[in-house]
Amino acid sequence: MKPLKEMPVLTLYPAERVRAIAMPVGGIGTGGFALGGDGALLDWQLMSRPHRGWRPACSHLLLRVQPEGDAPRLRVLESLYHLRLDADHGAAGALAGIPRMRPLGFEAAYPFGRARLHDPELPLEVSIEAFNPLIPEATDDSSLPFGLLRITIHNRSDTPMDATLVFALSNFIGDDGVVSDLRGNRTVDAESQGWRGLVMRKAMEQRSPRWGELTLLCDDAEAIVARRWASQERWAWGADVLALIDALLRAGALADAAPDQPCPPSDERGWRSSVSTHMTLPPHGEMQRQFLMTWWFPYRDLREIGWFQGAADADPIVRNHYATRFEGALQVAAQVIPRLSELYERTAQFVRSIINDHPAPIAESALNCLAVLRSPTCFRLEDGTFCGFEGCNATTGCCHGSCTHVWNYEQATLALFPDLHRSMLEAHLRYGLMDDGAQRFRLDLPLGTAQWSLAAADGQMGLIVRVYQQYRREGNLDWLRTYYPTAKRMLAFAWQPGGWDADRDGVMENAQHNTYDIEFFGPNPMMGVWYLAALRAGEAMAQAVGDPEFAVECRRLFEAGSAWIDANLFNGEYYEQRVQTPAQSLHPATHTLKPIPDAPPYQMGKGCLIDQLTGQYKANRAGLGDLLKRENILQTLRSLYRYNFLPHMHAHYNNMRVYAAGDEAGVVIGSYPHGERPELPPVYWAECWTGLEYMFARLLMDYGLHEEALQVVQAVRARHDGAKRNPFNEPECGSYYVRSMAAWSLGS
To answer: SS3 string of 522-572?
Structure first.
């Protein structure tokens, strides 16, 4: 294997801004772990469910050094940040009492990250770099279940040092931090392609997300493997940790204390294993070692993660697509190791292209948002179907169903992995359509289950535009001919009795469920512009497949609706809602209110809504042109920047979730610059959502307001600065929220 080149660097987070950093490491749909800003290995989420914050009892890198003529020292290669120093019984954790390093900073250009550490007592610096490939239009290569750690040790003194680098890892197969069953665990020696280490597995297969394998390998062919560095009788009162300390300080390595046998059923804590590598550090020199973790957890429990609509007695277990490509974790290693240099360089070329072509805040947002694809938010079924929650709760997905009105905003999959975008589209088009053309905005699993029965106006119109985008991206007319009839039925659903545009005047009036988890009643810019975008997409698709009559009707409705919205909803500064009393004969798929009130709550009214031109954002990405008068679009964007972009939050009253506070800047969802706020405005009106902020910034760029767009993006980046929030995780309804991938549009 060729030596890996130097990783690209976009952002340097100084030592005072690394506490919140946790950069996901793993492939698309494979689960993974995270590299902390201080070098800690965090957020172990390999077993097909979220559990941000969990790590195995031992999952630490340690360094034993002995300067020539001096006593040996032992350090954990991370800081104190992740120890609960204020816990009831002091800091918890198996290795909490071993001295630790100090952070120097974190360098990143996703998916590359490097934590830099130093020791206040030793002339020593250490860097820990993490990598997993992310290569456009190479979905399989971007979906490999591994994490590579490259550790570089710098001797800053005039004296040589004897050093041993140790990766201590519990055999946690069967334990995802929520459910634990370590019975029958086995750790065995392993070698692959000249790398040496171990494999952790269970003796018997189980149809459980917690059954599988993990390998830990070092690129040192002479690495020392301890399958179990403390026997069962050494567990009491921290004796196992004392054995580790004594062995490393005295002998410089951990010996294998275990015969090759499974963990006894009575030992609920499993084995503690290690891989150690020895080196001599020359004066003012450095040495480097690499550790490779590969994993293979074939099963996923859909009920356990919150996405199963099958019968109560039905089997919720499915296989992960990535696991069908390999027969075990060691096979992953055998295939990956010879390709590490190639995968690394192809990823670096992609990352450098983004860094070189865009201002730093935009490049950072565009790259960092891709962490969502590598989080437990996203997964693939055995047949390859790409599915996604909206985000992640503590131990489940958050808001199931590849939700159309959330996934509409992201641009990353279409741009980088169009096969994944197509897969999700096809699942909705094949399984989400109701008999009358309504599209379930949440997709049920198992595929074909038909429990969800609500259509979202923005979700359905956006899905139509996405079909056209897919066609433009790939140019496959046969594919469009296959799915055009479904898209046509979805657009025509708006004209159903009691539907969104029952009178077919090009304007949505009736109950319009949307991404704010409410219904708008009466014409409004958000739903109206989404509808215009879908009409233009419908026209373009009809022309492509040879359906001129439908193309003419779409054009008629578009022109009528566009003229009406400009004439009736534009107030000279921005577009506003004309609230109407709900009709009592609404289509049941369009609303959640039962009974329907005469004066519905949560209407926007005369307010200024950040989302009023989202349909234009999507239309621009699809090459559909202006949907409204250009001068009105430009004035609306200026008004949104004036009224909704707040340089700080000191005078802002937010009754809901807080994603920006104090001195932080952000774009709020709704504002009422001239008063007349309803008693109950839309429920999220006072919040800041990064996905909407990115969408707004992209629109500002589309219409030449580049300075304003950059300020919006800089505000988001300043909030996710590594000190207060994780730069690789922008929560909304859950962590690693899909809407944040609208940031990719900034760099495309």
So the answer is: CCCHHHHHHHHHHHHHHHHHHHHHCCHHHHHHHHHHHHHHHHHHHHHCECC
